[in-house]
């Protein structure tokens, strides 16, 4: 009885939260949910009045916070919402909230008389992006199986990955079966991708989990980077619903490593050529019928002083504060590959590293993180031995004191120019890119 009331209050609460404009949603939900918990422990008679108070409290909070939502430099956690228990007014229904409405006009593909959605690539950009993403799904499928098969249950237990977490790994591999099937279904008959053979850099449970964490990070970012640019929006819909699952895998791997799982406010996007440059090195052989990937393969950028995120005693956890390996200003030491290095499935043609011939010498390290590309001038550039260094940038999202720094697993490239880029034109970095890698910036 009591739990039924609790659910009703929760449902009303959630819809109130969803309809509230421009509020910090997490803060509001927490305040409202604690109200719900409080109200649920009261007698059933008081629950009805609690319900109206909760809704009222949610909208009060909304208007109180929306006026400051634009002020990005102030803390989003600063304002304290009104406590519902102090509210003594009455609830009157909002006439605009009742009755069946016509949907707002506009939107793409919403016309009931328009053509039905076509879940296939519309052009070469769509096709190549989908082929790349299918290669990514297959390496994940293979990697998760490979990791599970490579280590004993005792070795997994020692790393804090218990039987239930191993089942989650198994289930993630099955999710990849689903994703690769959906993507292949959208590919034309002459461009189907089959699973390849791979070589992996892991030699322990912890290095397997860490590699999976990095690989899923470029997997999700690689798709976010092109999704809004696809011509085929129906295809984008399927890819969106796949890649959000992958983002949850990425977070689960961070938790298995005992890291703070979300050290950012936004997930970054990546150009396809960056994702492909990071992926192709692990593919050793593919069926000859597999389509080629027509994105660039950049020389890899290595971080010589890359911190190891896991230690012998690190254990999985929902969240830890294990995130202070670098400080802004810490010197990052880079080395990079030459042009013309062969990699990938050599027997079926392979791929070679290359940069745009009009790109100049490396002058900046570009940190690709959250919504931003943050450039730092390179120091000690040695183009003969291909080494350089750069300090970790001092960055706060929106210049807010609570804004995350360059943090978590982020991507770094070397470029010849510090071209100003925002999320939707990030791919313009490609012609300036000389090497691509990643940094454990925790
Ligand atoms: C992958 O490896 C297996 C086992 O060594 C081999 O039988 C198979 O032919 C390889 N696949 C490709 C595409 O080379
Ligand atoms: C946090 O990091 C410390 C130092 O590397 C390590 O000893 C500890 O096990 C880590 N904790 C977790 C939960 O991974
Ligand atoms: C983690 O950091 C937060 C914020 O500084 C702090 O409130 C919390 O107590 C820390 N946790 C541990 C285990 O130190
Ligand atoms: C990453 O974020 C955590 C938590 O805010 C912070 O303790 C740590 O110093 C940050 N790391 C860097 C490199 O900024
Ligand atoms: C990061 O990028 C966002 C979106 O382009 C921008 O609004 C913000 O100002 C940038 N942050 C900083 C500190 O430059
Ligand atoms: C490149 O490295 C070699 C061997 O360490 C060294 O002898 C040479 O001086 C370096 N080149 C430059 C330009 O520093
Ligand atoms: C953040 O602060 C720096 C230094 O004061 C300034 O150069 C930059 O323009 C600011 N960025 C934003 C987005 O306000
Ligand atoms: C990228 O987009 C921003 C606007 O968001 C614009 O100011 C900038 O000039 C663009 N970069 C290039 C290289 O066109
Ligand atoms: C190389 O970069 C230049 C300048 O952005 C561009 O015009 C050209 O198309 C690029 N070349 C190739 C092969 O992409």
From TrEMBL:
Residues 1-19 form the signal peptide. Keywords: Signal. It holds the Pfam family Ferritin_2. It comes from the Eukaryota. Residues 61-123 are annotated as: Disordered. The keyword Cytoplasm does not apply. This is Ferritin-like domain-containing protein. It comes from Pterulicium gracile.
